[in-house]
């Protein structure tokens, strides 16, 4: 017989939801999701979030608010999309908007920032007893041999040595986790891109770095310890290993979702071709339009899954 558990508001539920992999959580009276400004005691998480089916994350708070407003219109939901409220307004670390079955959350820049958000988000999905959730990272990136504005659906999220792995230091020891993403979701996204106009999309490997400048082989940081030739050689090696774009969160995103049994995809637009330069020179309106491309693609995916389009 399945064990009887109490959910976060004290009601019975009779099956384990396996999104978290931490037995300590079961013994805690209250779980405070500090950086999201939510808690199992002060919020009815199943009521607030139990119907979530899609979670979209991205670095910038403005982008994730714009995405929430966009998906609100696309799903033709009632209410004014301009009036959606930030669920995490009690903190300025992250923003979070819920639009029907879609949650849109910002994660800031880099692995430490997204990983804190993911710990609390995954616990939130667990406490809310969400089922069959798909996560997307909607980001920007530097292209490797691609025209600016190309959307890359990540096949493998790889580290600086082009390996599909994420290394985390735990109690002074390095733990290595696989960064495999969901193949079915990636191929469904590619199919979606073929049904849309003006969303040039490729599938390829995404390299995740811990820095935007030296870590991505840029010559224009405050520090630079290598030559133009060294940079091009590294980018050529990356290209030969299947890397088509570079960003700063994909490996930990893929690794944490995978361990927790959550289907996930990474969809990033390229802002420049790194073989041609380091500075992002496109005008603001062009960059805004580029950033909408992953949103349009993922919105199409969501609408297809929900039966809005066939
Ligand atoms: O556009 P976002 O989602 O922030 O992603 C990319 O942009 C930031 C660097 O400018 C890094 O966080 C990188 O991963
Ligand atoms: O070159 C780029 C552009 C956006 N984000 C990155 O991490 N790198």
Can you describe this structure in just a few lines?
The protein is 30% helix and 25% strand. The protein has 310 residues and is α/β, with parallel strands linked by helices. Helix 3 packs parallel to helix 6 and helix 4 crosses helix 7.
Number of E-state strands:
14
Q: What form results from the Cα inertia axes?
A: globular
**Count of helical regions:** 7
CATH architecture: 3-Layer(aba) Sandwich
Largest sheet: 5 strands, mixed, barrel
Strand order of the largest sheet: 8-13-12-9-14
Bound molecules: 1-O-phosphono-alpha-D-ribofuranose, uracil
CATH class: Alpha Beta
CATH topology grouping: Rossmann fold
Proportion of residues in β-strands: 15-25%
**What percent of the residues sit in helical stretches (DSSP H or I)?**
25-40%
On the 0 to 100 scale, the average pLDDT is 95
Rg from C-alpha positions? 20 Å
SSE succession: EEEEHEHEEHEEEEHEHEHEH
Number of domains: 1
Structural class assignment: alpha/beta
As residue ranges, the low-confidence spans are 1-14
Pathway: Pyrimidine metabolism; UMP biosynthesis via salvage pathway; uracil from uridine (phosphorylase route): step 1/1
Enzyme class: transferase
Domain Nucleoside phosphorylase: 53-303
GO molecular function, one term: uridine phosphorylase activity
Can you characterise this structure?
The model is unreliable at 1-14 (pLDDT under 50). This protein has a single domain, classed as Nucleoside phosphorylase domain (Rossmann fold), CATH 3.40.50. The protein is an alpha/beta fold and 310 residues long. Strand 6 and strand 7 form a beta hairpin. The chain is globular, with a radius of gyration of 20 Å. Helix 2 (61-74) packs across helix 7 (284-305), helix 3 (111-127) runs parallel beside helix 6 and helix 4 (183-194) packs across helix 7 (284-305). It is built from 7 helices and 14 strands. Bound molecules: 1-O-phosphono-alpha-D-ribofuranose and uracil. 1-O-phosphono-alpha-D-ribofuranose is lined by residues 58-60, 109, 139-140, 212, 247-249. Uracil is lined by residues 140-142, 212, 216, 246-248, 271.
